[in-house]
Design goal:
3 helices
Amino acid sequence: MYVVRTPERDALARFLKEREIATGIHYPVPSHKQPALEPFDPPVLPVTERLVGEILTLPISAGHTPAEIDDVIAAVKEFFRTR
């Protein structure tokens, strides 16, 4: 997985989707809020909670061609140039 972090995660995901580039949110729930940890009364972790809302997985892996990876990189750069 290639995970990036931006406060504009949702806008970036929409932008990439419009260009037929799939993304994912693999960790939508912070680890301290997972049901398995409830019995341990985990602390409030506001930074972790904020970061979970900012991470986005990009389709960049060994299974992608260099051209596909270049397309993803170009689209991400385009998104941030327009900001």
